[in-house]
Batch of 4 targets.
Target 1
Amino acid sequence: MSPAEQRWRRFTPRLFECLAQYSRRNFFADLIAGITVGLVALPLAMAFGIASGVTPQAGIYTAIVGGFFVSLLGGSRIQIGGPTGAFVVIVAGIIMRHGLSGLLMVTMMAGLILIFLGLTGLGNAVKFIPRPIVIGFTNGIALLIALTQVKDFFGLAARDVPSEFFQRVRVLVQYLPTLDAATVTLGLLSLAVILLVPRWLPRVPGSIAALLAGTAAVFALHLPVATIGSAFGGIPAGLPHFAVPQFRPDLILPLLPSALTVAILAAVESLLSAVVADSMLGDRHNSNAELVAQGVANLFTPLVGGIPVTGAIARTATNFRSGARSPVSGIVHAFTLLMILLVFAPLAKFVPLATLAAVLFVVAYNMGEWREIGGILRLDVTDIAVWLVTFALTVMADLTVAVEVGMSLAALLYIYRVSQTTTVATVTSEYIAQGRPHILQDKDVPPYVTILRIHGPFLFGVSDKLADETADLSRFAPIVILRLRNMTAIDATGLHALKVLHDRLKKSGRTLLLCGARRQPAAFLAHGDFVAHVGADRIFPHVEAALRRAAEIRAEKNAEPSPAAQPAHR
């Protein structure tokens, strides 16, 4: 392959590769999956549009145009693009400060930044965002999304709710006595439908069931609740109106920080979603092509009045569960939404805002990664501080400020941890004796064992090297020993990478043993949640002990009777 062909391959959309071996069976699987995820995306798109401070149709237009380009040009087989909760807070803030024209400029500027990141390969820089920061602003965004829906869920009489956190809370508490019984009842019933229907009917998305039931109730019973019709005048039928946004050169510099934040969030969420899709498919996405596709999508959605686009993890997972085989399902998802817009738009005026608020409550809970907080709080005080500052600034200040301050703290933390890896000590006879169980040169490594090693600091920004080295697990023996003798430092991102490796090996029928961790890494590995996740009997002081345990595991498995040898029970 020539250098020019290699460069082109870096940006080749996965759709082209999939169509080379496409079949009728694949098409029908993609057709069903695309229709299913299109129906799931409908209430989410409207809800994200309303929560962002734009119209519900703007959310639908974003899902149609953005979803189409992400699937057409993207680097993942089943990635679904569209509006997501990550942008709700920042989009609402941009509109409040600079109006809709400012938002459209920010979205297009973010699109250009994403294309630049993809074409230059700089998109890999998003891996330098440590996990406490990701968890911090995810927690903050989820809380703010839920807070924006309180008014519609309870039917409060407040007209203008401030965007600032404490003022918003004060106004909501002040107007709490004005809650509307019919609205609260409809909201609670919608919430129950969203949560319970998937348990009874696993193939039926709860959000769609709630949307249909809530809309039918408003239409048939003439419920006196706020709807899309009463708040926005309904959704216009027909194709969206194309218009080039007004370009104001004087706003480029003021809007640049917001554009960078949107681009970073889009890159992080889309690549994270692509990684999740890879884990479900056993595939490997093309990061450069994915970022270019996200950039193109964000360039085109403002032409129809849309909001920022990124990869949507929940819709991508729904796409996989529905049997998607290729990016064709994402294109079908976009056309499904377009057909709904063209045919059923007049009925949208009956959609109750309380039902859409219930949908976003569930989205906020699912995206919040609340279970991760316990693990963060068990880390050292520096990681906790990075998480807490990012979370607090996201909620009480601004997402752009939160990312900037969080990254600055993370950089200082990185420098501190690297400085801690340097040691100066005299070599003594005790030191030599303590090192003997760790060396490999005199050890007999049996064929049923593969030894991996990590050399140097295993911090955010380098943890993906472990995923790269273990991409093909078929190369590994049944027992994998991860030797940490030369790993000088680890952080929350590295610890999460070890958990992911353990889960992947376990899923493939292999066993992970860890050994030889030094002082700082050993303290991290000793955290209760990591020990509970991996198992205390899988962590050893040196490779000699790990090899002994590997021999015991091998003997135990050989001693287990095969299913054919077990007596039949009558």
Target 2
Amino acid sequence: MRYQMIGHPVLCLTRAEDVSPGSDLVMKARPNSSTATLSDDIDSATLIAALADIAVRLTDARPTELVVQDVLERAHLTVGASELSVWLDVSGVLTRIWGAGPDEASVEELGAALAGATHDTVAREMLFGPRRVGVLLARFQSDVGEPVERFLEALAALLAAFVANSERSRRLESDLQIRMREVQEQKRFTETVLDLLPLGLYVIDRDYRITVWNRKRETGMQGVSREEAIGKTIFEILHRQPADVVRREFDEVFATGKTQQFQTESSASGSLRTYRLSKIPIRDPRGEVTHIITIGEDITDWVEARELVAQSEKLAAIGRLAAGIMHEINNPLATIAACAETMALDTKSVEGEPEYLKIIESEVQRCKRIIDGLLDFSRPRAQERVSLQVNTVVERALFLLKHHARFKQLTVQAELGTELRSVHASSEQLIQVMIALLMNAADAMPQYGRVLVRTRPAPRGAKHVVIEVQDEGTGMSRNQMARIFEPFYTTKEPGRGTGLGLAICHGIVADHGGRIEVSSEPGKGTRFTILLPVEEA
């Protein structure tokens, strides 16, 4: 039995009864340059039967796509391929049209197979005379033997003749050209949309190579052209951050699949600007992260507007607090007035005057503290911020308080963590916060109490450092804790505080991008916890 492949060198399939007794069945191409014995796991009868069955199937009157798909399914099961696919040549562009098997090759893998760069992937051109109809691609889990290569060569010839002679395939080719044009138009439209976005946007794959780079990334003092960026690794293009830091950020998104978002400042454009950076994972149908979109948004104007709104709200709050201020100041003023009136009525009583003067001085100082606290709370804080260690801040605050009369009666214990990351902050303002918290702790305790100051990194994964101030004082109820950061609210005895200290501390910490928390229980002391964001590398 002999089958001739139209448009291809004749392939002879020799049955067992046509060869000499005891000889092995062979499959050979004519002209016959070599003869290869079929492998033991795929016997000759199986390959011959498969080709015979395929030849019959190709005479089916069903639509071309159904016939070819049916043939590929039959062939891939016969040779045990993990993929068997047909790539049609549409105007010089190879496009995967049909396929069988659990895998799906990429364009890059097709190119490598055509170049003979792989041993487990075979690509055979589907030639109809001088014309290349397409390519038959087969992938295996191991190296491919010559018998299977001959089988694939014969299958490619059969499919080339079938597809080339099919009127339906010509209509399909026309449809494919239209489809390709539509895809190209859609691609150009998508690129236009990305280029018009007022955001810097790029996409990297698992190998950190840039696959998308929009026009916003091309402009500005640090702009890089799309032609220069596409195909390069992100480490070859961006140099503002160390490569290991950039790799660690991308690896975290690839591993967790969670979007990352943070703010950063840069003077690359000539003036200090604030940017919001977002790293967004792209998943394939199986849910695996294959690419990451990075979006850089200039939010300088938004940050400035937010600060103006916050300042406006703060001034509005000051207006609402005017009545409370007058009440707080009226109390010491009334005392001053009473002392002055007594001194005026009893000018001959020299004994009482020194005592009255001390009271007047004390109450005047109290008024001054209230006004100073109000100004600290209301005015914008434009303090210079530098890279610093929180341990240095704590040590400085403890040094300034060690000679204070109240602290000489207390036991202050410091437990400072090691290898803490630095923060970008104002040293003066953080020292102000520490002194306020330590003074509050001293006021909350009887004589000879203990204050614990501790620094440590935040729990694993959180980008913060932690400062804790814990006392053994009277503690607070839940209702008191709910109001502890309100201006002019205080749990101290009358005359011992303005109620602005913790409100100012809360504002300073929030202005640094951190937060301050409190936990307490009546009779068991209080712990204030400050969390400050670490400085970006």
Target 3
Amino acid sequence: MTKKQKKLLKKILLAVAVFAVACLISFLLPDFPGKQWVSLAVFLAAYFLAGGDIVRKALLGIKNGQVFDENFLMALATVGAFFVGEYPEGVMVMILFQIGELFQAYAVGKSRKSISSLMQIRPDYANLIENGETREISPEKVSVGDYILVKPGEKVPLDGIITEGNSSLDTAALTGESLPREVSAGDTAISGCINLRGTLTVQVTKTSSESTVSKILDMVENASARKAQAENFISRFARYYTPVVVILAVILAFVPPIILGGGFSDWIYRALNFLVVSCPCALVISVPLGFFGGIGGAAKQGILMKGSNYLEALAKTDAFVFDKTGTLTKGNFKVTKLAPVDISETDLLKYTALAESQSSHPIAISIVEEYKAACTLLSETGSFSDVSDVEELAGFGVRAIAEEKEILAGNLRLMKEKNISLPADITEFTTGTAVYVAVDGTFAGTICVEDEIKPDTVSALETLRNSGIRKLVMLTGDKKATGEAIAKKLGLSDVHTELLPADKVTHLEELLTLQPSGHTLAYVGDGINDAPVLARADIGIAMGGLGSDAAIEAADIVIMTDEPSKLPTAIRIARGTMRIVRQNIVFALGVKVLVLLLSALGYSNMWMAIFADVGVCVLAILNSMRALRLR
């Protein structure tokens, strides 16, 4: 419990004690001179102990032109109760209202805890290495290319490449995963991870503002700005609902006794009940709290949502479109076959590796790694210094000049685009991705690179089907045979192959036009080259946000790990949160409407009104807190 919450609790307990004394004087002690005034004074003391700040806020609201809020309603109703002689009820309304505020503060604190634990990943300092010595400085003062030391137990302050040391990195704060990641020289160190053992020397590759941890925290901090339709509805509803209720209460207090005759006291009492019931705090508090709890619960699972609007949209999703590489498959390619034409296998691998040496594409990296491994076996040095004029040809491949030769490496479309003549007996690979290679305008052969399906992909897709997802589609740039072979293993019948990035957008737009009204479509990609499709979908979900700037920037929802099994988890959390939000809306409005009618007809008293306001608010808040425990 926070200091502020403890202070509020003490104030409530003191008010309850004084209220008990007031009740003792009023109802149990025998009459004595001035008993009525003493009783009133003690009740007033209890009232101002419990609700002095509420009255002050109501007066400030009137002064600032913001009249119709919950403080105004509570102050008006309770002061009115004192005027009609209902002292105990006036005090108890304030005490119970403050108890509701305490529950709200506790629930919000509980929800924030899951977010704040994520916020604690921000490192406080970096150990900068200069002239063989280390000194602690702010991460903001470290530049790209500097070397930092990360000791056991410290957070990695900035993204970089490990140059010395071996260790295990705890990524739980970022991914929700309990198993540490083993790292050594040459591996990437991600900011926000905790170094569990061995000292690491890291060469910084990103400044503090561009680091993974900064991007994640910016995303989380801005999540509350993007409100769901249900939240916007409640905000608009409260804006018009409260003044309407106040006007109705005034009418109820004065019009019936004027028309029907009789005393005003009974009708004013009904109107006061009406005001207490009408306070919309159960809705205004519990609905945003439910969404906040859902976002916090998802964050604990390594699923970051950029706003409650995306959580709401995810709950309506009934179609998923997947990129293949890095999403359904590992993206860890391996060269499996070489089919040279009029050159040796070694030369074919060498020329391809030289052309791909400056590319960050997973296929290019696998070819370069295979060439390095071959050089090691042959006790040769694989040099990439003699490579120039590298040109990335989006959707086709790469062109480069190496060893005074023009090298083309890419797909079949690249060969046709450059008018490369292919032999009639060209080797066709039934599985994997084919990289076609030409040297100085002459076809030099084909390299087969294959990818592996992630261990949990099949079970994740099956779980999505069982959860009511009606359509699962795979889009890939792979050739038809490879794409269909992977789709068959995954049990996907709807697959589109040999697609350029623009083709993926076209296919996605066609699928969007076929979506039923009120349903959403999600695109799931690895965030590296899927930004246009992620942006075009109803919801863009990026896999493997850990270390991927593109994923965090382009997507609406980021799965921090590379696990497709997190998708059914995200769906369950989104649907569970929306179920809780709907329960709160129906329950709060239903009880309030019922008690408002009873109050107007004279069948309700202040205690029933208190339950309809504070009681419903507390129950709705407790229900909202369930969103934190959704799995």
Target 4
Amino acid sequence: MTSILTNLGAIAALQTLRSVADNLTEAQQQASSGLRVSAASDNAAYWSISTTMRSDNLAISAVSDALGLGAAKIDTAYAGTEAIVDVLAEFKAKLVAAKEQGVDRAKIQEELTQLNAQAESIVESASFSGQNLLKTKSNLPLLDEGPMTTSVVSSFVRDANNGVQVKSMAIDLKQSSMLNEVGGGGILQKQIHSVGDIGGFRGTGINSIAHQGHESYNFTGGVTMAPGDSITFTLTVDAGIYSAGNTYNLTIDKAAIDAALGTADGKINTAPQLRTVLQSIFVANSVPATAMEQMFTTVGSTTQFEIGSLETAGHFGSSIDISNVVSTLSGPYPAGFAMGLENAPADKHDNMYPKASMTFTSPFTVSVLAEAYFEVQVGPGAMTTYTINRGVVDAALGTSDGYIGSAADLAAVISQASIGSNLMAVANGNAITFSADQTVYPEAGNRAARVYVGNVQSNPPYAPDFDLAEVDITQNLRTLDQYIKGVDHMEKMAISSASRLGALQTRIEMQADFAEKLADSIDSGIGRLVDADMNEVSTRLKALQTQQQIAVQSLSIANSNSETLMQLFR
């Protein structure tokens, strides 16, 4: 049916043309923009995700910039710290050189002064963008200061709940600071609450010992005893300040010699033979001593003989004493000749009580926040830890400032802290001698109470009680060993700080690398969501252009029907 009112072919062709035109417009838009989703109307979900991720990528780019700034700060601080380590190593070497006899300490002090000035210059110079990680400003000592942290931006994070956070790496300025203005406490400065080497007490490891009483004599020659000849003497064993000991009147004669040596001529020719004779006499008379003692000599010695206590006399003492030597030798012997028994001992150790000493080095102060700990064991007592704090110091010295200024002060403080341990700490000049309380443990020699004092520690742990700038080897404020130990501690702390900064450098480099890769990954992810497949778009565009041409031609054909109809009415 042909109608002049309704051109169905034209309508169908026009609808097709409109559809093709719309699709062609969309394809042309994708081809020109390269995006499959360029507006929320294209795909609301993908557009929302891609827009958000593009924003996040801008934030990650800012993080990368911040990481670069942070890396520069850390690099600067690390370079300064590494230079400080070198200065301290040189400083310590100069101190060691100063221990050599005959060196000019004044000249070495000039070098130390310059090295300290160099260290201070390095600290001042280690600044980037106005921030110096090696120098702090606090009115309090760093140990007393609260958290002192700065940070470097490390990442931008969006969590599962769509919340965002900016993460950062913390840098503890209390660990990196070389110099803290006003309050002190930096790596190159004293620690206000440090007790230093505790006046020389730190590092003490006293484990005293003693042994039996004994004495040696020089053998002055042999004898030949005839019947009626003799040497008599008094031997006192284990006499001491707490006991009288046992006394024995002994005789050396021809019968005793022949019985001991298995001879018949009454001769003693050597020191070993005299030992044998004395030993036989001791056994025969139940004397708690031995002539075979070897603390000073050997049994085979030809020039000496030695007598020692067996410590079985039942007395507290541990000693040997020969007296009242009487010789009735006939023949060509000097008056009183007794083979050396008549002379004073060559070496003598009697009534030994275990003792050990330490040397007081320099005064120090126990602050209200400082404590020192040490272990003590006396005799059979248990190993016990004792504490020195401000209260103990002031109780021992009758003060209120915690100051310990001498060996006598430290001995009094140790005694106060270790009440009940039976430890005696006695000062003599700069020395402090440790021993057991003899009123509790009067036994001497091998039976005497041993004394252990050691494992001395402190809280806070050891730190120098002087600034690097205060080192002066021309004065006697501290010993060279104290200075060396303190500077070595500073060097260790600086090395630890450099290690931490180096670890941060590595982490920042890794994070910066990750940020770049993360940005690339996000770009790739966004592309997968919204980028157009240009191969597909171009092919579809060709197809749509062809369809458009066909639709236009179809419309032209449909419209040409009216021309045919007009011919019917001619």
